[in-house]
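Batch queue: ligand-bound targets. Current item pairs a single chain with zinc ion. No template structures supplied; prediction is de novo from sequence plus SMILES. Inputs echoed for audit trail.
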Amino acid sequence: MDIELLKEISSSIGGKNAPPIVDILFDKRNVNEFIIAKKLGLTINQARNILYKLSDDGLVSSTRKKDKKKGWYTYFWTFNIDRALLLLQKGLRNEIEQLEHQLKSREIKRFYICKICNTEITEENALLNDFACPECGEIYEMNDNKKAVAEISSAIKKAAKKLEEVENEITFIEGKKLKKHEREKKKQEKDKVARRKLSNEKRKRSRMASLKKAHAGKNSKKIQAAKLKKKTPKNKTKSKK
Ligand SMILES: [Zn+2]
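Prediction returned. Tokens below.
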């Protein structure tokens, strides 16, 4: 993972103090905000302000813990690489789209420049100003589109390369997640089988136990009945007589 890309998106969202936060949070989870502030050399409120800005776009997320004695909350922060990659992807796609639009207009439109002010305008606007710069009066010259086309093309190439890198990383992370999910599913399945086996055994054992008990009960009844029988014959013979 190219950490520079993560810093780039963080800086565009959280400002110039945001990139060092990526260094602090990268590959860690739930980092104490006081440690972040200390490492940044900022006050806790300054650090929080940057973290809140980043969290508005989902780049970081937090859990909080209440200090039981003091009664205040401390926040613990995690950098969300998935979210950063998606934002980068979206931004780069937009950038490429805009550059391609510019490239197209270079192919069909003419542009003029004022060499004094170093400004460029479309042919329509140059015409409106009678081909003279309204700022300095210099006559506009037609700009060389080739140079602009080359610049835009190289910018597109650069953005496309970055986009490819970002998308490879997204695919890699998704693959890793899928594997983890499959591992968890397998483990769940295994646990389920083990639980079922255990509960079957338990049921069997308790059935055996109750059978034994019932058997023992019957036996004791038999014994009692036998005892009674021993007494009854005398009575019976007496009653018969
Ligand atoms: Zn000018």
